[in-house]
């Protein structure tokens, strides 16, 4: 092909003329840079390759990281992980070879990305998120994404979302808002884990975590400061009472002193809050994760205790009584999974008291069918959203819409096995979830999310809106 034919085929003279005119109109101080950027924009973005690798999550367990290549750059994302039961949620693909990472390696999921998924997505426009997600769903063909693995699919979906934002030259949170048809952006109220228990810590505390919510902050930046200061005051309170050993931390960064009762933990947190002087500006939430200690119809509050007395088996009605007392005595505004995941009856009964927000985590498993049932039956009034239980950005957006249409609260959530990826921070702002739960205000994989929210708030400047008092019904 001659040079002239090439120029004609690509209509280059016209495109260059347009770029020059645009530079003149913009009175650009650096016309060559302006023209080259203009030309770059004129080229549509296409996916050229999707490449995955096995990395380790914050627990030291393998997960999938993806580099999605377009003709304009490389976009990276990684999938968080936990004990996915696969009951109503998407399925992780693990190799199961006991000789490699105790069966947890993910080379099959990596291979699926590098071969099948890459082949299906090459040539696609990364701004078309729902088409990309649908292509992977079609390729997988199973209901729970077990063929390719949710660990493979989600990382690609998030990386494509980042590439789509870059093509549009907008921040990730703005692209996510666009994808969901929203035009409001809200900085969420963080729920910082300060005391860890349950399966995530080696102490005797049955419940999974105690969190603090700086609802009274005026900005996210202030909320983070309030959270951090309380965390450090708490450390001092714990050292005074239990010695330095009490400050060992659980998997999500909360302190794990050897306490065994709800009240012991709540008193420590109450004392730390009073030392900060923030008082009623900080509220408390608990994640009971009651499924983990439900034995038949009873709840064993001593399930981790080495010296079980056998006296601490509570009926569901006893638990309701206990929650009522705790909410009266402490500034508790939210309780997650107060009963076993199949105990819809008592969850509903407790919700109907309208004492605090009732969050469905194990109860719902971010599953739209279970959510619809819970909405219809008024079982709870908030969703704990774990995107790796769903598997694609498009479906996660749909699930948030479902919750919001029911006027539920929405908590964008991390997993215990996290990575440095801060995707859920942008996701929570773009969808105005109003709440985010990403662990303690310490440890890199948790702070990746909180620090990203700081950046977003800075970038939004005067347009930044912190959910604050509107944490439950952020529009
Ligand atoms: P995970 O859940 O530990 O299963 O990741 C965290 C939570 O219950 O909020
Ligand atoms: Zn939970």
Q: Provide the helix percentage.
A: 40-55%
Global structural class: alpha/beta
Question: Tally of extended strands?
Answer: 14
The average pLDDT is: 95
The low-pLDDT segments are: none
* SSE ordering: HHHEEEHHHHEEHHEEEEHEHEHEHEHEH
Shape: globular
Task: Supply Rg.
Answer: 24 Å
**In what range is the share of β-strand residues?**
15-25%
Heterogens: 2-phosphoglycolic acid, zinc ion
Measure the end-to-end span.
57 Å
**Main sheet summary:** 8 strands, mixed, barrel
Number of helices: 15
Q: Biggest sheet: strands side by side, in what order?
A: 4-5-6-10-11-12-13-14
Write structural notes for this entry.
The protein is an alpha/beta fold and 475 residues long. The chain is 41% helix and 16% strand. The chain has helices at 3-9, 12-25, 31-42, 107-121, 129-140, 150-168, 172-179, 220-242, 262-276, 316-329, 344-352, 368-377, 393-405, 423-430, 444-460, and strands at 47-56, 62-70, 73-78, 189-196, 209-213, 283-287, 294-295, 298-300, 313-315, 332-336, 357-360, 382-385, 409-413, 434-439. The chain has an eight-stranded mixed β-barrel, surrounded by seven helices. Strands 1-2-3 form a three-stranded antiparallel β-sheet, with helices on one face. A three-stranded antiparallel β-sheet has the order 7-8-9. The mean pLDDT is 95. The structure holds 2-phosphoglycolic acid and zinc ion (ZN).
